[in-house]
Write a structure and sequence with these properties.
- The two termini are about 15 Å apart.
- This protein is α/β, with parallel strands linked by helices.
- The radius of gyration is 17 Å and the shape is globular.
- The protein is built from ten helices and eight strands.
- The longest helix is centred in the middle third of the chain and has 17 residues.
- The protein is about 40% helix and about 15% strand.
- The chain has a single domain, classed as TIM Barrel (Alpha-Beta Barrel), CATH 3.20.20.
């Protein structure tokens, strides 16, 4: 009954046991997994995984950390593949795209150009976006406004309360994952507690951003442990406790929010939705 709205299941960290990882996720109650691409080179991988598992769907985009080697030819190929995939019901969004002003050595102007061009593709095909917003919340939102894209998810959101409300006001949902499980992640937990429940979706970012119970300390070492999509159930338990709702209530809300962010998920209600929320 849980939807992991952001999972890199194609990553090499899963090459040895990908089947076991997905089986464990199903056993943990995960009914849907969104697989974002990061570069033209892995478009076929995420598409193939999505078509091999009825619980998986995919997005196509160029990640800002892959922007150094991406140019016009990559954008042309993205647009070609989006056009070719638009009738594929498992294709749900443009992503993962955005800006990263945390990792050194990335050209801010080139990142911004690449991101803005991908937003144009999203607007052209009327698709939502999966956004990378690390240390770049204001700049990512400014480009969203400029492009007129008003649907999608700000993944792993870690901005201020005002920034969060600006994203929500623009029509975006906020993705919460492993970071919310750390007691010292006060800002993220405050956002998860104070933002309207209608603005929140669940994610793992597996194999990254492992939750507290997989980590070596209470903050900072979580990126060293391998995260998996099944951990979204634990993230949900923490979030339900923070919000004072039952897990069942949160599952229904998270499903509705996920469909609001990624409308093509509605076609998979019979597989992904909690039973009482199957009619949306």
């Amino acid at each position: 009954m849980w939807i992991d709205t952001h999972c890199h299941l194609d990553a090499s960290e899963f090459d040895a046991d990908r089947g076991s990882v997905t089986e464990a996720a199903v056993a943990a109650g995960v009914s849907g997994i969104v697989l974002p691409a990061v570069a033209v080179s892995n478009f076929d991988a995420v598409r193939g995984l999505a078509h091999a598992d009825p619980r998986c769907v995919y997005a196509l985009g160029i990640h800002p950390l892959c922007s150094r080697d991406a140019g016009q030819a990559d954008l042309d190929e993205l647009r070609r593949q989006v056009a070719a995939s638009i009738d594929d019901r498992r294709f749900v969004a443009i992503g993962e795209i955005g800006l990263d002003f945390f990792v050194p050595g990335l050209d801010a102007a080139h990142q911004t150009w690449l991101y803005a061009e991908q937003l144009k593709i999203a607007r052209e095909f009327d698709l939502p976006v999966l956004l990378h917003v690390r240390k770049s919340q204001d700049q990512v939102l400014a480009q969203l406004r400029r492009a007129g894209v008003r649907q999608g998810i700000a993944h792993a959101f870690n901005g201020s309360n005002d920034q969060a409300r600006n994203y929500v006001a623009h029509g975006m949902k906020l993705g919460f994952g492993g970071n919310v499980t750390f007691s010292r992640a006060r800002q993220i937990r405050r956002l998860a507690t104070e933002m309207p429940l209608e603005s929140i979706v669940l994610e793992t970012d597996a194999p990254d951003i492992a939750p507290a119970w997989l980590s070596d300390d209470q903050f900072g070492e979580q990126h060293k442990a391998r995260n998996t999509p099944g951990e979204v159930a634990g993230v949900a338990r923490v979030l339900a406790e923070l919000r004072g709702v039952t897990e069942r209530e949160l599952a229904d809300i998270a499903w509705r929010n996920s469909v609001a962010a990624l409308p093509r998920l509605a076609a998979f209600a019979d597989i992904m939705a909690p039973r009482q929320a199957a009619q949306i």
